[in-house]
Amino acid sequence: MRIAFIKMHGLGNDFVVLDGRTRPLPKIDATSAAALADRHTGIGCDQLVLLEPSASADFRMRIFNPDGSEVEACGNATRAVGLLHGAAARIETLAGVISSAPSGGGIAVEMGKPRFGWNEIPLAYAMDTHAMPVAWEELDAPIAVNVGNPHAIFFVPDTDAVDLARLGPEIEHDSLFPERINVNVATATARDAIRLRVWERGAGLTRACGTGACATAIGAMRRGLVDRKVTVRLPGGALRIEWREDGEIVMTGPATESFRGDFDPVAYGLYSSGSAE
Ligand SMILES: N[C@H](CCC[C@H](N)C(=O)O)C(=O)O
User: Fold this and answer.
1) What is the ipTM of this complex?
2) Domain spanning 3-111+256-268: which superfamily?
3) Which one of 74, 164, 181, 185 is the catalytic residue?
């Protein structure tokens, strides 16, 4: 039996969504996730997103990077599945239960509260995460923030002048980051505006990163560069981030369904539910 998928994106950060909220999905592991995400031999996406029933929320969202790693959070995908759900939703993730709701033509997501402790990022050893005493060439003194997943944010004079394709993977895989790291280069251009480019852990350069926008906005606020409501402009478009007085991060932005299709699970080492395992 063929498996249906929905192709979606948030500002060009694209996803293959397998909707298992009402019918069981085949077992997905790192190998099959990477095969489905492959842009040449698979369907192709920045992240594979599985929806499953949940005992603690409206549904559970699992997120796999194209390298097969399963991760705790994905801001753009959360808006996409919020659009798919069509109404306000509480969503169980590896980082806890978050919520989405339609908002002004887009989707607003309450992403949880940021964490700043060196062991919460996590880092391999104790260090000031506000201005880390480390550097990779011109990228130095990052601020580290965990918004469900780990981020390092470098504030630079010109984001376009950074060779992120070369420095991104070097930083992502540095032994300082035991769970690797998402790498953000940003410029605060006004009290309510940030420019951002992201090298994503397990995915590489993407057109937008929702958790990167959240982490970068929080980092800029903690550094006193911006106020508590900012517009973050990424290559794929803009997201609105607010750090609410109660500590919750609220991200608002668009989500789009591109097309629907189906695939033969056997071609990806999967067996549709109920068939021979
Ligand atoms: N690559 C990220 C997951 C996807 C985050 C990004 N697509 C977003 O919209 O938040 C990580 O490994 O933490």
Assistant:
1) 0.91
2) Diaminopimelate Epimerase; Chain A, domain 1 (3.10.310.10)
3) 74
